[in-house]
Amino acid sequence: MPAATPTAHRWSFYRAGGVDQVRLEKGADILHLDQLDQKLWVALSCPVKGLEFDQRTLELLDSDNDAHVRPPEILAAVAWLGKVLKNADDLVKGQDGVALANLRDDTPEGRSVHASALLILKSLGKEKSSVITVADAMATADFFAKAKHNGDGVVPPAAIDDAATQKVATEILACVGGVKDRSGADGVDQAGLERFFGECAAFAEWHKKAETDARNVLPLGDATGPAASAVEAVRVKVEDFFGRCRLAGFDPRALAALNLEEKAYLGVAAKDLTIHAAEVAHFPLAMIEAKKALPLVDGINPAWEDAIHALRTTAVAPLLGKDKTTLSEAEWGALNAKLVSYLAWQKGKAGAGVEKLGIARVREILAGKAKDILAKAIADDAAVATEVAAMQQVERLTRLHRDLHRLLNNFVSFTDFYARRKAVFQAGTLYLDGRACDLCVPVNDAGKHASLAAMAKTHIAYVDCTRPSGEKMTVACAFTAGDSDNLFVGRNGIFYDRKGRDWDATITKVIDNPISIRQAFWAPYKKVIRWIEEQVAKRAAAADEASIAKLQVAATATGEAAKTGQAPAQKPKFDVGVVAALGVAVGGITAALAGVFGALANMDAWKMPLILVGVVLAISGPSMFIAWLKLRQRNLGPILDANGWAVNTLTKVNIPLGGSLTSVAALPPGSARSLTDPYAPKRSPWPRVIVILVLLGLVGYGLWRLGYLHQWWPGNPLPKPAASAPAQPEQPK
Hints:
Layout: E1 13-16, E2 19-22, H1 27-31, E3 43-47, H2 55-61, E4 68-69, H3 71-84, H4 90-93, E5 98-99, H5 108-123, E6 131-132, H6 134-146, H7 163-176, E7 179-180, E8 186-187, H8 190-212, H9 214-217, H10 224-250, H11 255-258, H12 263-269, E9 294-295, H13 305-320, E10 326-327, H14 329-347, H15 358-367, H16 370-383, H17 385-408, H18 415-418, E11 428-432, E12 435-437, E13 440-443, H19 446-453, E14 459-466, E15 472-479, E16 492-497, E17 502-511, H20 517-564, H21 576-601, H22 607-633, H23 637-641, E18 646-647, H24 655-661, E19 662-664, H25 686-706, H26 708-712
Antiparallel strand pairs: 1-2, 3-4, 3-18, 5-6, 7-8, 9-10, 11-12, 11-16, 12-19, 13-15, 14-15, 14-17, 16-17
Helix pairs in contact: 5-17, 6-17, 7-16, 8-15, 10-13, 10-14, 20-22
């Protein structure tokens, strides 16, 4: 990044999220953005997709098409706007509509956009309009996408008036393919035109070689091709047949093996055979004998009957004679010799891409004027490219005029977020567990996102959202108020997107972090209670299993005793050692409690509340301190970085801001409330009795410590509290 350039422009900053953020309140602030040190920008990159922002505007800013918008691209757009607009203050208003009077006439950029804007309004019948909107620019874009000439140098067949040339254009697309026109239809460009006619010329020249030496190359004329194909279809099997026959003539002992032994037919015979059984396709064409000619009618392998019939009718009969019922090895060689020139010509084939049209059609195309007509149509289409590009600049201007200031307030600074105006990265609001969470960002991969988002020190729930139409999405929702007791995987809620649509929402993953100091205060006690509940449940389950096991053993023993007539084994007596150990344990606990209460009894009354506070702080203090540290580190940056952003500064989410991002359910002010609950559990009197007894005990202890009990009740059995010794006068030295 280049170093910051000294500037006379006076910037204004405000403090939010623990960082100084720039105010962009005037057009001059935007035009001087290149002079603001990029170290002061809150973000340095944002994705093109997945934001609550016009994606087309972001795509126009993304000049390198890498799916991200970065400072150089924003600065380039700002510099261009400075060359187009007379007064940039209109950018701050974010209005849809550029005043034509605000377009500069002293720069090429301003004059070009002004002329294109007038042309667009004229094409829409709005010659008297003084402003041009995004809708106007888009309507013209649609018009030019469907116009006969739209500047992309691509001509669809439908855009050609001449029927013969239109047919050629269709054949070009069928033979060599085409490219997409702005209208969305396939069309012909100059490269495709040259390729097609090059193929046609090559195919015609290649075909001319055969016609020049037709006697050798095309001995059967147009029927030469099918004849050669029939020969090639059986070449391998025919040469295999003659090779086996020669080997049989060399050594008659090989004859049985060459014809395949009987066992080779056993596996085939066990199956249901078709007339042309594929199971015997690898067998010889016919029975092997020394110096035998290949039969063309009878005695042929069933799998090859059709191919041999095609050979006889299309190649042997026309070239060697119609009465041939067999084919010797010498005749096979002569047959191939008659087709050798054709096969060599086929190997040198050129223009195969247009072969499907046939030589007659290819020559007709070459002789016509279709190439010149298509070339002119392509040139005429490309001639308006500058005009169309200028109209695209009008679209760019109208969109930036409407959207740029809002983007800067979500990129250079996070004004929209800290002003609670719904930033572009906020996808909507999640309602779940009596809370409404506004800090929800869309997520493509929850697992990948969570690996970085955990650094935000924020309690995050990943929520899968679905709609009856089948739409799905995943959002990461930050819980910044309340507690996490009832936030777990599987809980359901409802999510409202920025368009007001409702989605079914289910928690699928949770990143656990402190939500508040109040939650941290009660956390140790809740953990102890949960641990006690778990231990009691485990012990109860174990005792239940042990009881059932004892009953089963007793029942089994009783049954065995009934069978044998012997009394069941006596139940083992209690272990005295266990009883003694329990007594020692109870005695130790009692002694410890007596020591504690004795120490409290000898302590001044005013110290007891301090001790109670100290005990509470000792239990809850560490949890509260850890929560305080994490809440101070709560940061928006990692949540956005995991989503493709590049956040440049520490964007804190402190407790007051967190309280505004997650609202907890509360009764409306002035609501009438009845505390009578017909289903409330009946209250036990014992808690009140215990509280009263404790209070009476404390009062009695205080009266005893002050000596009032002995004054009011002379026969009090309690020992009189020791009076403090009077101060002794100082002895003279």
